[in-house]
Amino acid sequence: MAVTIAAPITGTVVPLTGVPDPVFAKALVGPGAAIDPGEGATLTVTAPVSGKLTSLKPHAFVISHRPDQGVLVHLGIDTVHLGGAGFTLRAEAGQQVEAGDEIIVWDLAAARQAEKSVVVPVVVLEADVEDLSVAEAGPIDAGDSLIRIG
Question: Where does the UniProt annotation place the signal sequence (predicted)?
Answer without folding.
Answer: none
